[in-house]
Fold:
Amino acid sequence: MKTVQIEDLLKEMTLTEKIAQLTQLTPQFFSGASSDGEITGPMAELGLKAEDLKNIGSVLGTHTAEEVMKIQEAYLKTNRLGIPLVFMADVIHGYRTIFPIPLAIGATWNADLAQKVAEISAIEASEAGVHVTFSPMVDLVRDPRWGRVMESTGEDAYLNSYFARAFVKGYQGEHGELATNFDRVAACVKHFAAYGAAEAGREYNTVDTSVRELYQNYLPAYQAAIEAGVLLVMTAFNTVDGIPATGNQWLMQDVLRKDLGFTGLVISDWGAVGELINHGVAENSKEAAYQSIQAGVDLEMMTSCYLQNLEALVMENHVQIEQIDAAVLAVLNLKNALGLFEDPYRGLKTVAPTKKLRTMSDNHRRVAREVAAESVVLLKNKNYALPLRKEQKIAVVGPLAESQDVLGAWSWIGEQTESHHLADGLKMALPNVVSVGWQQNQQVTAEELAASRTIAHDADIVVVALGESSESSGEAASLATIRLPVEQEQFLAELADLGKPVVTVVFGGRPLDLSDISFHSTALVMAWFPGTEAGTGIADVLSGNVSPSGKLPMSFPVTTGQVPVYYNHLKTGRPAHVGNNEQKYISRYLDIPNEPLYDFGFGLSYTTFAYSNVKQSHHKITYQEQLTFEVTVTNTGKLAGKETVQLYLEDVVATVARPVKELRRFEKIYLEAGESQVVTFNLTLEDLCYYQRNLDFKADLGNFNVYLGGSSQAEKVGSFELI
Ligand code: GLC
Structure:
């Protein structure tokens, strides 16, 4: 439809029809629904009338194309103006072919792969009638006690922005493509804003960050998604500066609309409008509706404050009809961008029947396997225990050795039974592999333990699969202790006493306290939740078919008590450093080091890399000049491998305290054994800017230090002055 037609349609709508467009419900409210939808939040008594259902604007949580067609057909028979429903769902890391969790995708430092994941997810979601995905989640995270760190790409704003752009491009394609290319879906960036900063990592808890910290670290990835053209933004459950995001006019209007320039549709999170009452900022649902519409929330998910109150608020002149019209236009424009007025089924009835379903195709599984392998992070490899060798007798044991609980949270309609577990993968990759597993959430039996000991005893090398269950991460899954169950640690310690190499593979949705696990492991691999092709992807790495290249997108603490620990921390007035270890009055602990167990950006390879011959184009630059850094990277080992070359900057003196270093560039390169490559980074003035005391985004004159290497522990290689 043309814009003028949309505006004409709006003029024909009654106030009741307009207000109903601003509500989103799960399928069970609609005739023809065959599922209850994915219940991901409190189901409040919605008090709906049958009449309401003729005009509701949107559905979330359908599972199949048949269900979507049934609901849409029945709905269009009753909607007076023939305005189609828009269908949305949480397609977070795949629809039916499940890819590694987003935190694992973050470990690939590979935007092309992330974009491919989004493209395939969009194809499979579209084949099932989904029009919009509630993804990417770009919340910056520093606290692994929070279960939803699995959904993010980690602790760094620059890396998160890099992935936010890739996901949006993969889901939506080029600008305007959605109306005709039904292999694409609209994307919804979330959760605006700073949901990842929930105090103590406790789900739905208070967020209290400074405005400057919000702009400096929490907003950049949302901004990147908006610049990439994301069509929807979802509000966060939490408060920002004491005001819940969903009713926070400053955050949703001044920041999101004015500063970040967002012009699309704002949808509340599940029940977040009604929850303004629980927050204690709204007396009742009428007040909640008022605050949310004033904040510019266009679509209310799974509460009915708008339905129950907006008409009265307009009649009482507390809300202007122009505000209602603006929200309705946001919904109609989204439907128009998706081509729904021309085809309410987006090809399900016309195009899909002529095409072979690509869902779960071999090609999709191949990509899932590639991403799973590239997301694996090698944390330890003493005496080159890895890669495993064909001539070795290999025992695979432990609670996740034969477990198919490898999809992770938010794996939508992915089937665990369609996944490859670790033992499967290793048996396909190597000739002499035997395995004993047990159900992770069940007590291991004496027989299983005995059988594990027997095959471990007879093997040359033991692979131990440990980890958390997928239920212990994701939404509503905060943990006060991020250590593996004591029986897993004891099992590993016993195997370590056999005096043969032990390779530990850890599955999990968050950085875990692996101090004890690392101590007892000859080699240690973080596999995350790798998805449908978990076993094959991990086996590709352990067997040496793929050299590990994952780099941590989030720091791993030495213990829960060290949290939050992140690489780009401030210096403090009494920084600890090598020279003052014996001093008391320094910013440090009495019982643990300041440094995490494994740093942001860290990950080993089966080979080694040397950095040399660093060159910089200037030692002094003006505002107009660009600074170039070159470094020669050499593969000094015997095997080919990929290295992610990382460049960090330190702003030595600024108007506010600045981090010890910040990631500003990186490049992932492939080198054959003995091969060298010159990597070049061009820095611009924007790389030197930060939010100053008055919130101006500017650079200071003065000195900057440059660090280059394969992790955030990169060495200082140079400095320059902005003059
Ligand atoms: C959930 C989540 C949000 C999700 C929504 C719809 O509570 O917070 O990320 O998209 O509800 O399922």
Summary: The first strand starts at residue 23 and ends at 25. Residues 3-354 form a domain with the TIM Barrel fold (CATH 3.20.20.300).
